[in-house]
Amino acid sequence: MQIIKSFMLLLVFIASSFIGRCIAKKYAYRLEELEELKHILNIFKSKIRFTYEPIPEIFQEIGEQAKENIGQIFKKARKNMQKCSAGEAWEKAVNTSETNLTNEDIHVLLMLSKMLGQTDVEGQTSQIEITERFLEKQIIEAEQEKNKNEKLYRKLGTTIGLAIVIILI
Question: How many domains does the chain have?
Answer without folding.
Answer: 1
